[in-house]
Amino acid sequence: MSQYAVIFDMDGVICHTNPYHAKAFEAFFNKYNIESSEQEFQDHMYGKHNSYIMSYFFKRPVEGEELLRLEFEKEDMFRQIYKSEITPIARFPEFLDELKQEGFKTAVATSAPKANLDLIVEGLQFGPKMESMLSSENVTKHKPDPQVYLLTAERLGVYPSQCLVFEDSYSGISAALNAGMKVVGVLSSHTREQLPPCDAYISDYTEITAQKVKELINS
């Protein structure tokens, strides 16, 4: 096996799910008479864990059993909306195949619930190609904390310096950088200017190759 690993976030990185999360949150917030704006979604929803999102929009701490109940309700809305729309970001399946052909270890590290990860894995059938898949239930600290990335590197048997992460959000990129990993910013939801400095940026996977990944990790 290669000494190199590529780790993918999921929302906005494997699939462009954020518009569907926004639809689910709009329906959810309407039910609870909570006002929200697209700018607030940009600043306080994309890339954030549900504990932060709920507490921000409800304007009070949301935790414990209440958080679990509200999180399940909103994420179930998302899954119902998205289950017939599952589509990978352009050339993701081909890029993943290229990485496997070159001997890379590959993984998913998402802040989303496992049920969301399972939905997308089943829809795109990439599970057998991943040596590790972690979701929100697997960690106690959420992005921008590096826990999910450090745990993934440990599971893959590689050093953080041997990993390249694909991320699309400020908190996710910060988590990968905090883990000591190289990062490619996927510009599906934000511009370069809205994100921390990355080692490279792509709009989709037509703009990256396995050879480029090796060069970035070794740079």
From TrEMBL:
Under the heading InterPro entries, the entry gives: Beta-PGM-like (IPR051600), HAD-like_sf (IPR036412), HAD-SF_hydro_IA (IPR006439), HAD_2 (IPR041492), HAD_sf (IPR023214), PGP-like_dom2 (IPR023198)
Q: Which cofactor does it need?
A: Mg(2+)
Keywords (alphabetical) are: Carbohydrate metabolism, Hydrolase, Magnesium, Metal-binding
* Pfam families for the chain: HAD_2
Q: Name one GO molecular function term.
A: hydrolase activity
Checking NCBIfam families in the record gives: HAD-SF-IA-v3
Q: What family name appears in the similarity comment?
A: Belongs to the HAD-like hydrolase superfamily. CbbY/CbbZ/Gph/YieH family.
Tell me the protein's name: HAD hydrolase, family IA, variant 3
Task: Tell me which species this is from.
Answer: Sphingobacterium spiritivorum ATCC 33861
Lineage of the species this protein comes from: Bacteria, Pseudomonadati, Bacteroidota, Sphingobacteriia, Sphingobacteriales
